[in-house]
Design brief:
By secondary structure, the protein is mostly helical. About 50% of the residues lie in helices and about 5% in strands.
Length: about 150
């Protein structure tokens, strides 16, 4: 049997085990997700942030990935360090004024940008259920990753 090497990057590898475990635990405790699903959400959140730092498309997380992104932002020291390392600046997180549902095309484009950046993407976490009322996609009113 021949082993296949997967050279896709993961959010877990970027975060490191201590931060990653803390993010996953936060998503379990505060968002009621099963541990395995919480780990996948945490992975995608870190990958999203790193991709958003240099993306050429507006980045919008799915509802699921947004859970992990909020957990990451609440780890303020680590979030700031990742922003500085990958974006060269702090990426402010300001929800879109007035809320509104996420644009499925923008969510899909974000997942494609992560894939293009070399990250493993868990497609089942990139959905929009139409019930979300608070789109969280801005950096001081601009999509993540744009100056």
């Amino acid at each position: 049997m021949t082993a296949t090497v997967n050279d896709q990057k993961t959010g877990r590898a970027v975060a490191g085990e201590v931060l990653f475990e803390s993010l996953a635990r936060f998503v379990v405790v505060h968002d009621g997700q099963a541990p395995e699903r919480a780990e996948r959400i945490a992975d995608q959140a870190v990958a999203f942030l790193v991709t958003a730092a240099t993306a050429t498309v507006p980045m919008v997380p799915s509802d699921d990935v947004d859970l992990g992104l909020h957990a990451l932002i609440l780890h303020t020291k680590e979030y700031a360090e990742l922003c500085e390392e990958y974006a060269g600046r702090f990426l402010h997180h300001n929800p879109k004024p007035g809320g509104g549902a996420r644009d499925p095309k923008m969510v899909a484009a974000s997942a494609h940008a992560m894939k293009a950046a070399g990250f493993m993407v868990f497609d089942d976490l990139w959905t929009v259920n139409g019930e979300n009322l608070a789109q969280c996609d801005s950096d001081c009113g601009r999509p993540y990753g744009q100056a």
